[in-house]
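The following record pairs a protein chain with its ligand, 2-amino-4-mercapto-butyric acid.
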Amino acid sequence: MTLTFTATVLGSPRIGPQRELKRAVESYWAGRSDAATLESVAEGLRRRTWTQLRDAGIDSVPVNTFSYYDHVLDTAVMLGALPERVAGIADPLDRYFAAARGNDTIAPLEMTKWFDTNYHYIVPEIAPSTTFALDASKVLGELREALALGIPARPVIVGPVTFLLLSKPVDTNEPLLGRLGEILPLYADLLGRLAEAGAEWVQFDEPALVADRSEEEIAAARRAYDHLSGVDTRPAILLASYFGSLGEALPALAETGVEGIAVDLVAGSDNLAGVPALAHKHVVAGVVDGRNIWRTDLEKALGQLGTQLGSAGSLAVSTSCSLLHVPYTLDAESGLDKALRSWLAFGSEKVREVVALATALAGRRDEVEDEFALARAAQSTRANDGRLHDAALRARLNEISSSDGGRASADARREIQTDKLGLPVLPTTTIGSYPQTTAIRVARAALRKGEIDEAEYIRRMQQEVADVVALQEKLGLGVLVHGEPERNDMVQYFAEQLDGFFATANGWVQSYGSRCVRPPILFGDVQRPHPMTVEWYRYAQSLTDKPVKGMLTGPVTILAWSFVRDDQPLADSADQVALAIRDETIDLEAAGARVVQVDEPALRELLPLRKKDQEEYLKWSVGSFRLATSGVTDATQIHTHLCYSEFGEVIDAIAGLDADVTSIEAARSRMEVLDDLNAVGFDLGVGPGVYDIHSPRVPSVDEIAESLRAALKAVPAQRLWVNPDCGLKTRGNEEVEASLRNLVAATERVRAEL
Ligand SMILES: CN1c2c(nc(N)[nH]c2=O)NC[C@@H]1CNc1ccc(C(=O)N[C@@H](CCC(=O)N[C@@H](CCC(=O)N[C@@H](CCC(=O)O)C(=O)O)C(=O)O)C(=O)O)cc1
Ligand SMILES: N[C@@H](CCS)C(=O)O
Ligand SMILES: [Zn+2]
């Protein structure tokens, strides 16, 4: 008989409560420490995570959720599916990091968003020549390590269907699911080895099954799990879905022989309708939100577990997805407002909630009554807090939304702006940030610790701005930026200044590899108490006659990279943020800005996974951007910037933003985005990125000129702008100067050919 469990989480944060892994990995990359030191930090972090989960009452602990860089890349390694270009690197760790980050001679694998989150995974490349071969050393190593510590360990592995659906076919147009037959024997072999090593359960993550899938794809998923559940000696299989509803895939999976199915009941409440089909399964009920930071309404969750989920075979309480997406613990937040703290649950607090629910479900509610009382109190104080409902703000928003007539036509605006700006054809610009050097970050840390005062901090940042402006003047760029040195992050910086947001001190969440972000918490109605960027703009503009762009982050991106309110539609929160940004654009214009850029790199990220929900999203997201940008006169040129995405599905929305100029990541997708824009009749200014800023490589003049000539085949010169793919904050000073010098030289060469 299969042993069941009662309380679990689908995965854990791994970067370390104080970002220990980030520091260890970066130190290894820089050659300041060796592999043994890195491994010992990693081992310590794993041990701490597992023992904390077990000691808190989790009776099935996920392992193999640790990663030096990314769990999808780990799966590619497990299946022997790294591309040939890294195969010659003998050391496995260096080969792994070369695949993730590239080196002087090797291009890294691409990176893209993990579903609709702000986590980025490495995209495996699968070519017809790829020969799969099992390397189970990482997962078996973690399993043995955990079992030796007495941890009830459940290895977690990206499932075969999701692995293939997320990979990129190379040198072929055949869908990769056709390769399922090649990897299933490896997964089957793995199952035997895990059983032999002592695993009672294994978790296969299949989040790709919550998106729209064809009948063939669902049939392939069914075949895969029929096959794997048919393996003789194996652990019980938990098939984990998250980030939405399994929909049509649920009944198909229910018919396979897997013992358990994890369903997301936060993002996928439709999953409840499928529970009767799971009468023979161990249902792992994701009732505690793994993506957001609000304390769970335990009464409601317990009610759901006791009634709507009653037809499940057996039940375990869980988070809706891995806790990778939330910070470790509230304990690290000393500056939190008391009321707000009582409404929140970060990683370790969510674990307590899972255990409290499992305990109550087992009929021992009296043991966890305190936890229930805190949850009830939070529901009530939150609902009654005045900061959540500002009548004056809401009235103003209504008034502006209904009276905003928008801007003049694109053509009319172009004429006025061209006269005012007097730029040459193929204007050059950069996206906003210049290198966030250690000196900048150290200055900010010194300000935080009180080692320098505000005046000294401003002086240092102004020096950075002056250096960046002087550099751009020297290089001969057309529209300048101030370089964003004062911003810790393009979202957090704004959240720190807006009422209604709380910015954490230590709420780090992995964004990709060693890079982390601290998503702010949007808890109340949004107000802008004072201008946020105007003085930085004013200072930069005082140093040059060339136009300096006002630089803002748009409402969709501010929401996408924050923890958002769950007590009102996202569209309403977006409009409140949009109003604050609108006020800022108006102040920038009044301060003299002729160009204002409002970045929306996360526009694609928030696109719902199911088609049926997409239209509504696109409508409100475009609406909120337009609300943010339509307060200025027609003479002020609005730019936007988009990156980190495949834009195909949101191309109409990009046109709908109606920005005068859109800079867009294109260097890696070889300008295909321009054809997509043409297909929807886009006729505004566009700056397809002419080189990839994700690599330290300096692009040559020839290469950039070639990119520009390619762009000119799709876009008339009058509408074409020249810029890098994205901001330069992760790059070094030297490579930035060399790359931009080449960008300007290439532009001059191509201008001469017109
Ligand atoms: C553009 N991207 C962003 C995303 N999401 C965001 N919220 N913001 C983004 O910019 N999603 C998509 C992409 C993801 N890309 C990146 C790129 C780079 C980073 C990154 O560099 N993160 C930094 C942390 C940035 C930050 O908040 N810095 C603070 C604190 C700095 C710090 O740790 N200081 C040290 C002392 C100084 C030192 O030793 O360096 C300290 O306090 O101990 C700041 O500048 O003040 C990272 O370190 O990971 C993220 C996503
Ligand atoms: N203005 C920002 C956009 C990044 S997506 C920057 O330059 O970093
Ligand atoms: Zn960008």
